[in-house]
## 1
Amino acid sequence: MVKQRNMKKYILYLTQFLRKTSRRLLKAGKQAIQWYVRTFRKLPWYGRTGMAILTGICSLIVLLIMIDLNFLWLFGKSPSMFNIKEPIQHIASEIYSADGKLIGKFYSENRTPVEYKDISPILIKTLVYTEDERFYKHFGIDFEGVFAAAKDYVAHGDARGASTITQQLVKNLFKVRSQYSTGLLGYIPGVKLLIMKAKEWVTAVKIEMLYSKEDILTMYFNTVDFGSNAFGIKTACHTYFNTTPDKVTVEQAATLIGLLKATTYYNPRINPKNSLSRRNVVLGKLYEHHFLNKHQLDSIRQLPTILKFRQESYNTGLALYFREAVANELKSWCKENDIDLYGDGLKIYTTVDSRMQRYAEEAVNRQMQEVQKKFDAHWGTQAPWRDRSGEEIPHFIEDLAERTPAYQYLSHKYGSQTDSIFYYLNQPHRCKVFDYQLGQKDTTFSTMDSIRYMERFMHCGFVAIAPHTGEVKAWVGDINFQSWKYDKVLSKRQPGSTFKLFVYAEAMNQGLSPCDLRVDENIPWEVEEKGEKKLWMPHNANGGATLDTMSLKMAFAQSVNTIAANVAHEVGIHQIATTARKMGIRTPLEETPALSLGASDVSLLELVSAYGTVVNDGEAIRPILITRVEDKDGHVIYEEKPEKTQAIPYASAYLMQQMLRGGLTCPRGTSQALWRFRIFDKGTEFGGKTGTSSNHSDAWFVGVSPNLVGGAWVGGEYRSIHFRTGELGQGSRTALPVFGYFMEKVLADPKLAPLYVAKFPQPKEKLDRSWDCNDYYPHYSDSDSIYMALGDSLRFEGEEDLPSIE
């Protein structure tokens, strides 16, 4: 009771004190205002003007102090003096595999910070004259620039940039606009931006108080982003010009400082014309400040930008293409949440299995060395770039050479003198090229010879997905990441007969069964092309139709083009395209009759994902690369939520599982070459489909098992580079072995085998359609016995070629 009385007395006393204090403050404020008004009225006009200016300055100072102190929690927290003395350093983000292995890092601070003495005066003057010409005169805020920007906005509606170098350093170091709150007033529209700008001003003043101008410039050069993953001036100099900050030339400095305005738009590698124009504007700034005379300005402006681009990236270790895909997957999310993937110390947990990834890379390397030997022997000294008639494409290498920086430089130097340009392009020089044994080898090649050498390589993409979760378990984008950055898992090419999966899936949707019979006959389609009606006639790989009657399962297993096209005519091209989209094909499809035979481009990733839809009982799951992301403190800030849809009915999916198995069990099935791999001895069941596009430009194989789906693509970098004719370029010979070698390693791994040894399940519901037809031998007994028994029937049977309009 005594405590309660004392508490009541204390509250009463505090209330009375606050009332008296507030009255006194209000009275004092009222008196101050009255004094101010009286004094203001007595002064002459120039006195009033001075008093108003002084009042505005004092009010601004008081407001900035209130913002910095977060008065009454109205403005939110600002960077403290401790933060400014000890700025937070960027932390590399780590990438982990599904089995807990660190497979790589994303980082921005992969450079050694430079000291002021290591930065060329050319760079310093170029930065100051371009970005902040009054840098040495202000104390963090350039009021003259602010007033000029405000004047331009009032006069023209378009304000110039008024941020000083110090303010830009604040943005780089502290991210005031994202990592610090704006308090209660920040919820008022328009006020938030003013508060953030004020915080930048206050923090810039603090930096000017603590650091010298030289220190500020050094910190700026060490933190600024120059694009192309080049953070800091040392990395930028090395990336773009293979030089150091103390050795840059005037034109190089102008290029680097110029791209700070927009690191993509003015990037000298991506947008060379924009970069050159911006560089010359920066050179004009140097002339205005008398760093260059008129003769020097005119001479340097005539020089081309000569890049020696060497982007510092993550070119070692496992899953290089996959890691790039992960970065692209997170790009928009990071932008929306203002997260720095390369400096915020994230832990990224992915779906790829490090063991399966290693087996996939080994399988691609092993098979592609064999393919390359056959390809080189096939063409010998002849050029492999051919048109549809088989003739060598004239000027093919010359056209490619015109896209190179060397050609651009020489054309700028010699103009239309092509003889001079190609004379120098044919001069030998030291360079690095791809080599299977060394990875990359130093050699002496001319530019033209190096193009000829590199374009003779065949390429490959491989991806494996767990169909019931959509998780990507292995991803190989090409044969060598250092030499070819373009990811063949994501590139779009003609799928050939692998697309027939969707033709027959739609047929199952419309009530057909694997055992339904059709005649192998040519039925022409009437199509309209450019206003003219023409006949489109499907052809088989061996030429004409046999007029034999066979089941749909047999036709799918043997990849009979005529029956696939005829079935497509029955069920409708539009319906087939719709089913393909539902099953996972996201690339727009050309709804023409040739679509039924795979004439419209798709990516390997979406094709394998769509095959996974069949194994997953008709439920489509968008491929998943990332499971979750944690911040540097271990808090989960991103978690993948699978996108699932029932793409086709369960009955259709089950029947298509049996159709896919027919490629191995039906006579002359195009997937029978899979029997020569030791992958059946543990009881795992498989199915699959091969595909070969026009002129053997693209070879495919997608293999399915109950718990894993994998697909491979093999072809030239350009569609005109391919095997001439015959069996060498078929999917069963080039792409199928990649899957076979991969599964051999997976099933031989004692830790992985239990996850992937499985048989296709029996139907979950009663089906009114038959599928058990045309089986050639008992299901999946000992593979060695089967191989010996089949003998010549395991030869690589006829692949398909796309028909043309007739």
## 2
Amino acid sequence: MGRTEEWSGSVIRTPDQRLRVFVSSTLGELAPERAAVAQAIEALRLTPVMFETGARPHPPREVYRAYLAQSDIFVGLYWQQYGWIGTGMDISGLEDEFALAGPLPRLVYVKDPAPEREPRLADLVDRIGAAAPVSFRLFRDVAELSQLVRDDLASLLSRRFAAGGSAAPEPSTRGPQPLPVGRTSLVGREQAIAEVTGLLARPDVRLVTLTGPGGVGKTRLAIAAAGRCQEELAGRVAFVPLAAATEPEQVMNGIARQVGADLGGTAEPVTAVAGQLGDEQWLLVLDNLEQVVGAAADVGELLVRCPGVTILATSRTVLELRAEREYPVPPLSLPAGASLAEIADTPAVALFVDRARAVRYDFALTQRNAGAVAELCRRLEGLPLAIELAAARTRLLDPAALLDRLTTSLDSLGTGALDLPERQRTLRATVEWSVDLLDDQERSLLEATAVFVDGWTIAAAGDVAGLNEDETLDLTDALVRHSLILLDHTELGIRCRMLETVRTFIAERLAASPDADGIRRRHADHFQALARQADRPLRGARQLEWVDRLQAEAGNIAAAVRWYLAHDPTPLPHLFRVLWPFWSQRDHLNEARAFVDQLLPTADTLAPHPRAELLWTAAVTAREIGDDRAALAARDRLEPLLPDLDEPYLHAASLLAMAWTSTMVGDLDGALREALAALAEFRTQQDEFLGTASAALTAGSLETTTGRYEEALHHLRDAHDIGVRLDNAWLAATSLVLLGTLALVRGRPDEARALLDEALDLSLSAYSTQLVTLCLATFAQLAAVEGSPARAALLLGAADGLRRRAGLRVYPSLRRPEEALAGRLREALGAGGFDGAFAEGAGLTRPQAVAAAHERDAPPS
């Protein structure tokens, strides 16, 4: 007879008042797991009921049936073995135990992977996964299982046994109420829990406020940190939910209810609460304080009256009390690597997998879906609520399909679990909850900043929103305190940003704003002005500084260009010419090509000067990405304009473009004449360092190819000196690799290696794929000279693979030398040997290719 059948009235509980948890599994293969589960059960002051603990004289079947009849909860552990089948039975004891436990709450844990799972167990697991109501979890190791069991049992007890005759009696309404029990496991927050707990333990810290955007996990973190403090505080920890509070006085009333203070005899709730708490050590967790920050004065007074009280608050805005220590809760860490192991070990991905398994028991991270899961987590910026909503969709969509839908609308994430607060059922509700707390001016600035891409400066925000500096500073500070804007402290200064999941919804409000068109125009004008300001610095001594500055605004600049293309293309030819040094050095050429191609059909309608700027940009961009036909077509249209160009820089730059495109038709002597003419003109222009160095590099490369070695050495050293003087990695590295080429053709391989080693390291800091591949191709020439044809083919393939993935081709003047080298290597290795080494190199990542280049011997396969 089961315990619930013994007595139909009130249950007379034993003195220990412990619930019994029956543990079902095969004994041999899961012995460590059984031991861990027993410890987890005992840690919750429950009693594990296990076959091996006694009743040896009785038949096994009678033992487990008797034990089950006296248990309150069933825990099943399964891995690969179906288990023992007794005499006269059609199913194993393992399956029989699960069936007999039907009236009990059933928690099932399946170890994964299980490459040798027996078919009958596989069938049982499938049926359990489809059964309801059954909690079904996958686990990988003992530690994960132990945590899952503790979390799930605690959650089950809070839901099922909080009241009624079959559980411990309800807690008194006087005295501290228990902390809420998490409904799901807390993933990826160990460091944050330790940091918050450390703050709470400091005697000089009385108030810690966890801030952050909605859905970042402030409440879960607060509960976890408070739980770590319970034992030391002898249970004097109170959780005060304030999501429903709308008036400041409700905060003290809420605290009073949770700590058992009597409000009947006083008009001052803070006095009643202080009297109840006295001088004892207490931790009060005030959750969702943002909409009643007006209660800050009462909170401060309570801290003064009760020296033993520490407060842990969660809020989207700080309270601005002197005692306050803010702890901004960060999103979960995102995948940095590309391997399955690196992706799986990332907290954001671990959370996704955990929540996906809650709705699809057989969900697993695999080589096939890991990339999509990683990209989902990146798109959702590690925001726990967004990840949980996305993972819940795996019930219907695999990660790749979900990622496709996410590119269309964040609403595709749907709604969360029914036991989530209403304001967190969707991301939209979470953001709107925060926005509704703003005043009109704050809301107006927030909507204006939705036009920015990848962040903004405070000055840019003021310019776009039409505010003065003081107004912008004050309103930005308010939005930061509401956790709707985040601050990044960079080498270029402070930048503001919104989580993209937040910005998407704010952008909808911007679209409905009557000033939306004006905001977008001011945004475009601001970044056009910034680009114009960069013109001379990009060509002179401050190039590196301005390339970095424009890189920080790359998304905003692209958005501005798109706006002008759609509404007013007049400024674009000049803008393109100005931005080209930045575009070429930071791998934005494919985007630039798309912009140029959209505007190019209008070239003949433009005045001569903007037409020349547009055609110049078209020629040099097409040359960089290897479209010879387009480059030559733009050159043919640019050349007739040269005699009438009266701007010295544009004229010299156009001559250099002539040189670059002359190499495409094999006219190396003509190209050299044009490069030298451009160099002479640049040298007459003050501070035109980029043009001077670029022309010297072009001349030096052509002189190397045509056998003019002394002239080449002179020009390449001049370019290198400019690069070093300007601390310009791109110029310095390009000159070094060309000097290395010169050393090779002069029969000096040791000198070439030293130059190329330095060039390759510098090229990595220049962020230019074209430059890195130039180094790799030259290393391939060096390997051939050193008698390592297989290594040379590998490096040549690595250069080709990186170029192809970036949409680039080798420079025209260097194509013939590379083709000749490939021919020699094919002859030395045979067609199969060359193709195999080349293909292996083409598959290398940039770090792998760089490591292979630095190796003196053949790299391991």
